[in-house]
Amino acid sequence: MNKRLCAIEELVSPGIGLIDVGTDHGYLPISLAKHGYPGTLIAADIGKGPLSAAQRSAENEGLLQRIQFQLCDGLDLCDPETIDTIVIAGMGGDTICGILDRAEWCMDKRFCLILQPMTRAEVLRYWLTNNEFVIDRERLVCDGGEIYSLLSARFGGKQKLRDAELYSGAFSQIRQEALWPDYSAALRKRMEKQILGLRQSCREPGRLALAEHVLIELREEERTRANCTGDL
């Protein structure tokens, strides 16, 4: 498995069952089965090709009967009574929001959501916090030269994130991550590039103001972290 999937597996706790949405080759449920995960394991994918590849991988490991395979869009065929953990990784944040939005049953505190957006993580955090989910863990992982956010969330609470935290994750959770300085620097460059383009186009003043505010908060957090670590 790649580093992203290994980091996701570390966030999984034993439970009654787990569904891996967009399972691709099924590496995560196969690894969980090999490492003794006690509950039901479901590999789900919208594509016949990836799901067939996952079945072949499981068969090669002698685990074909241990894992259930579902050809479906997101969580559309998932029986909520069989799982308590939902993993959605390797998709855009907006796509993940769409999957969760169609599965209103996941808005229950008994479900742990483990999510890894490839892009638009700020959209996902906004959706979660505005739908009464609490993001209780944030991690950073470097894979293939890119830094990705991993988060776990559970329904049933109020959480307020600052504008910059929608992009980075809650500072209190993420600032101790070893990759945070590099991740913050990448976010800062992204905002600086966005601000330059918006200023040149003289359009979308609201979006420009947001980007400028995010940049200010990122710089403030970088200074705070530097003061705490003595890395000035």
Short description:
With 232 residues, this protein is an alpha/beta fold. The protein has two domains: 157 residues, 3-Layer(aba) Sandwich (Rossmann fold); 72 residues.
Topology summary:
Blueprint (H helix, E strand, L loop, with lengths): L2 H9 L5 E5 L5 H8 L5 E6 L2 H13 L6 E5 L13 E8 H10 L9 E8 L1 H10 L2 E11 L2 E10 L7 H6 L2 H4 L5 H22 L3 H25 L3
Helix pairs in contact: 1-2, 4-5, 8-9
- Give the structural class: alpha/beta
Helix share, percent:
40-55%
> How many strand elements?
7
Give the CATH superfamily of the largest domain: Vaccinia Virus protein VP39
Largest beta-sheet characterization:
7 strands, mixed
Q: On the 0-100 scale, what is the average pLDDT?
A: 95
The level-1 CATH class of the largest domain: Alpha Beta
The CATH topology annotation of the largest domain reads as Rossmann fold
User: Kindly, what is the distance between the CA atoms of the first and last residues, rounded to a whole number of angstroms?
Assistant: 37 Å
- By oligomeric state, this entry counts as single chain
CATH architecture of the largest domain: 3-Layer(aba) Sandwich
Q: Strand fraction band? A: 15-25%
How many DSSP H or I helices? 9
Label the overall shape: elongated
Q: Kindly report the spatial arrangement of strands forming the biggest sheet.
A: 3-2-1-4-5-7-6
Radius of gyration, CA atoms, in whole angstroms: 19 Å
Question: H/E element string?
Answer: HEHEHEEHEHEEHHHH
**Unreliable residue runs:** none
Number of structural domains: 2
